[in-house]
Amino acid sequence: MDDPLNLDGRFMQEALRQARRAYDAAEVPVGAVVVRGGKIIGRAFNQVELLKDATAHAEMLALTQAQSAVGDWRLTDCTLYVTKEPCPMCAGAVVHCRCARVVFGAPDPKGGAAGGALNLLQFPTLNHRCEITSGVRSEECTTLLRQFFGEQRTLNRALRLSSTPRVAGSNPPGGFKPETPGEPDR
Ligand SMILES: [Zn+2]
């Protein structure tokens, strides 16, 4: 889409600001904003750990705020900006509230539901399809995620090393099993 004022970039900048708030709170750094008529009516960052709620993704929180601002569950003239490709849960929510457009930064080929692993946003048998714009400020969005997971791995390694007691005769049954750090799923 032609965007002479680079509005997409500017709104993604705001979503990135939210993602950095998540980063500072030791949450997976994803941020989202909902825009209607050129105004931000919802903004949030991922708060799964803070709220101990697996559904507290940035998109879900931002959509809920936007629905309150509009006074309706229908967000037919709204655009969702999010720093990472939405997961199936969030893409499902986008379809349910009939959002017109989704703009995202970092692609997620393993778990993304906006064309990465699957495409729920334009699923032929669902009653709503929305426009997708990908790759907006994707480098900044991806770098933030990589940096976060890199630090998490270093931290986990340090924690394992510091919590391995070396007491004679106290080896666990089966002996020492080195933990393999799993790749985080988002
Ligand atoms: Zn999600």
Can you give a write-up of this model?
- With 186 residues, the chain is of the alpha/beta class.
- The model is unreliable at 170-184 (pLDDT under 50).
- The chain has a five-stranded mixed β-sheet.
- It has five helices and five strands; from the N terminus they run αββααβαββα.
- Bound molecules: zinc ion.
- The site of zinc ion has 6 residues, from helix 4.
Summarize the structure.
By secondary structure, this protein is of the alpha/beta class. 37% of the residues lie in helices and 16% in strands.
Q: Which helices and strands occur, and which strands form pairs?
A:
Blueprint: H1 7-24, E1 31-36, E2 39-45, H2 48-51, H3 58-70, E3 78-84, H4 88-96, E4 101-106, E5 131-133, H5 138-162
Parallel strand pairs: 3-4, 4-5
Antiparallel strand pairs: 1-2, 1-3
Helix pairs in contact: 1-5
The structure holds zinc ion (ZN).
In order across it, which strands form the biggest sheet?
Answer: 2-1-3-4-5
Rg measurement, Å = 19 Å
Q: What's the total number of strands? A: 5
Q: Can you count the helices?
A: 5
Overall helicity: 25-40%
Stretches with pLDDT under 50, minimum 5 residues: 170-184
The hetero molecules present are:
zinc ion
- State the end-to-end CA separation: 28 Å
Largest sheet: 5 strands, mixed
Topology order in helix (H) and strand (E) letters: HEEHHEHEEH
Give the strand content.
15-25%
Shape: elongated
Structural class: alpha/beta
Mean pLDDT across all residues, rounded? 90
